[in-house]
Amino acid sequence: MKNKDPALWAACRVHRILAQAHCRAVDNSLPSLSTLLIEQKALERGWRMYQKARAHQWPYVEAILRRRILSDIQQVHAASRAIPPSRIAEIPTILEILAEIRQLQDEFDDVEIDVRERRIAVTTDAITLEDVPLGEFCIQLHLDRLAKRRDASAFIIVAEDANAASSDSSCTHPHVRDEALCAGDGSAPISHALAEGRIGDAFQLINRVLHTYNPSSAYVSLDAWDGRSCTDCGRTISSDDLYYCDSCSEEYCDNCIRTCADCEESVCLNCLKEDADGNQLCPTCFAASQKKREEGGDEVEEDPILDPTEDEPQPQTEIFHEYPHCPQTHAGGAELPRGPSDSQDRAASADASSPQAA
Amino acid sequence: MKILYINNQGGGFADHIEVEDGTTVADLFDQKMPDASPSDFLIRVDRQPASAEQVLQPGSRVSITPLKIEGA
After folding, report:
1. Total-model pTM
2. How near does any CA of chain A get to the CA of B49, in Å?
3. CB-based contact B47 A200, cutoff 8 Å
4. Which of A97, A105, A140, A314 pairs with A272 at a CA distance of 20 to 30 A?
5. Could you please report the per-residue DSSP string of A83-107?
6. Per-residue pLDDT for chain A (358 aa), expressed as one digit of tens each?
7. Region for B19 from its dihedrals, namely left if φ exceeds 0, alpha if ψ lies in -120 to 50, beta otherwise
8. Quick one: which of A231, A234, A215 has its CA closest to A223?
9. B34 touches chain A (CB under 8 A)
10. Rounded to an integer, what distance in angstroms lies between the CA atom of residue B63 and that of residue B43?
11. Where are the alpha helices (DSSP H) in chain A?
12. Is A214 within 8 Å of B72 when comparing Cβ atoms?
């Protein structure tokens, strides 16, 4: 069929898609009927047996079958409850669909039906959310997509004059990424509108979602629309709040940046180094510190005045507390240097425990 | 009389419902959305903008669409 009126062409096309979907929905609406039929047959068989038992005056069998029949009735109830009264949308007539498509021209300034591309498209007014201008959006209903799924994914949302989030160029609206709308609360009404052939309602619902900002589940928050993302954690924040790491030349949020204890330059957590004294340093200061330490270490070995053993009392104390029952022995087995009071105590202890003293 | 009522909030189903003769758009809105304000909705009767006093006719198609629908 070749129509010169694109609206009529689109209406026929949508009607055919909905008719095919309707046939599939009807076919799939009775998958669990077999369970109900099985239960019903069991009930009928039980009822026949019960009648026989009564005819033969078998009271014991009759009582058993009565209980079984009551149980079978419950099973039939349960099986019938498993089949919900499925709501299959009625197919609108071509004229009704045509009226829906013509309604778009009342609701939107710019409506385009592209027969070759098989799509119906409208353009919204310029949208501004929370003082962030996002521009106009072209809402495109692709009929090939509609044939596969009657939900928001049948639409493509194209930014006409995109003001994409600076942290994500694919995000042209807080709820649009890669030209796909995350419809949220609009998902169910959009699906129902498409399934029922209410094309005008579906476009209007998409339009209303585009005009609404939900900060709790936006792809990119409007607060950070012009911001950039932290290289480390990915959080998007205003560019004014980002810190520059001189070492790796990347930008970071306040959670992922530190200050060099020496030069006080900003340094990211990846570049941050910690010296032996626990100072957090940038790579440059850390290298300088290491070099100084190495040079200092050489001097210590060469300096005859400094006695390395004088640096050891600190470990002694720790080990003494850690092994109170064995104060003389180092964890590695080395004997600790003894102070004067320690020597006296040990001497007293040795005297007390020696056989001679006993 | 029967009208077609399309509530685009929540489930978004279209239903044929029974209303009393002489029911206006405002009456229907109060019945169906007692806690809501009409200014928050796009109300169409037979696909056209409607006034609050407009009296519904048998077979009227009334659609109520919220102006704010939160995406995700």
Report:
1. 0.62
2. 10
3. yes
4. A314
5. S-----PPPPPHHHHHHHHHHHHHH
6. 555 789 999 999 999 999 988 887 777 666 667 788 888 999 999 999 999 999 999 989 999 999 999 989 988 888 777 665 556 667 889 999 999 999 998 889 899 999 999 999 999 999 999 988 999 999 999 999 999 888 999 999 999 988 888 878 899 999 999 999 999 999 999 998 998 899 999 999 999 999 999 998 899 888 888 877 788 888 777 777 889 998 899 989 889 999 999 999 999 999 999 888 888 999 999 998 888 888 876 554 444 444 444 444 444 444 444 333 333 333 333 333 333 334 344 444 444 443 333 2
7. beta
8. A215
9. no
10. 6
11. 6-28, 33-55, 59-81, 94-107, 143-148, 187-195, 199-210, 283-302, 313-322, 340-353
12. yes
Which residue bears the tokens 């040990």?
Answer: A346
What is the rounded distance in angstroms from the CA atom of residue B60 to the CA atom of residue B45? Answer: 7
Q: Smallest Cβ distance to A201: which of B6, B67, B72?
A: B6
User: What token pair was written down for A131?
Assistant: 């003082």
Count Cβ atoms below 10 Å from residue A213 Cβ, excluding itself.
20
- Rounded to whole angstroms, what are the CA distances from A320 to A197, A316, A350? 85, 6, 19
* Cα(A210)–Cα(A213) distance, integer angstroms: 8
User: What single-letter amino acid sits at A86?
Assistant: S
**Residue A107 exposed, middle or buried by CB count within 10 Å (0-12, 13-18, 19+):** middle
Note whether B71 contacts A: Cβ–Cβ < 8 A.
Answer: yes
Contacts of residue B6 in chain A, CB cutoff 8 Å? 198, 201
| ipTM of the complex as predicted | 0.91
Strands A119-123 and A127-129: unpaired
* B14 inside 8 A of chain A by CB: yes
Q: Is B9 touching A (CB cutoff 8 A)?
A: yes
B68 vs A contacts (CB less than 8 Å): 208, 211-212
